[in-house]
Amino acid sequence: MTSIETSHVPTQLGHIALRVRDVEKAAHFYSDVLGLTLHRGGQRIAFLGIREDASHEIALMPLPADAPGPDPSRVGMYHMAWEMPSFEALEALHRRLIEKGVRIAGYSESNSSANVMFFDPEGNELEALWEPPADEVARIRASGAPWPRLEQVAL
Fold first, then answer.
1. What whole-number distance in Å separates Cα of residue 30 and Cα of residue 37?
2. Beta strands 16-20 and 58-62: pairing type?
3. Which of 36, 39, 76, 90 could form a disulfide with 130 if both were Cys (CB 3.0 to 4.6 A apart)?
4. What integer pLDDT is reported at residue 47 of this predicted model?
5. Domain 79-155 - what CATH class?
């Protein structure tokens, strides 16, 4: 087995481009519900993100209004995940999702992270994830406190 020289390996995902039927509605969801900043946008395409050192993390590309939605039985993206800086930030986003009537897909049980899975207006599945560093996981476990969990909504 050969090793790959690290200078030839990607450093991080630059952005994801989603095809959507309604760019304006999708851009509103990603800015109003998730809190992303609309960097550039209009009827034809929208660029949104959170990083100041990048032009965008999401590009929204238009399709006709009658285009079929995502199909979980076909090859393609399952979901994209957004990292949250703290459990409290994840809780706040979770509350906002519920308040905005966003359809929740579910939650994963883990002893070292917490998450919520949900859908954008086009039916693309998203995840918000709090995955603390190993030292914080160890601190929480050593405290004897139960692992932080979101109050799940009935699906």
1. 8
2. parallel
3. 90
4. 94
5. alpha beta
Q: Collect all residues with Cβ–Cβ distance below 8 Å to 49 and sequence separation of at least 6.
A: 15, 36, 37, 39, 55, 56, 57, 58
Question: What is the overall mean pLDDT for the chain?
Answer: 91
C-alpha–C-alpha distance, residues 59 and 71, integer Å:
20
Please give the backbone phi and psi of residue 83, each rounded to the nearest 5 degrees, phi first: -80, 140
Return the structure tokens found at 23: 């760019």
pTM equals 0.88
| Integer Rg of the chain from CA | 18
Domain spans of the chain? 13-65, 79-155
- Long-range (24+ apart) CB contacts under 8 A made by 142-149 are 147/110, 147/111, 147/112, 147/114, 148/87, 148/114, 149/114
CA distances for 94 relative to 45, 77, 109, angstroms: 27, 22, 16
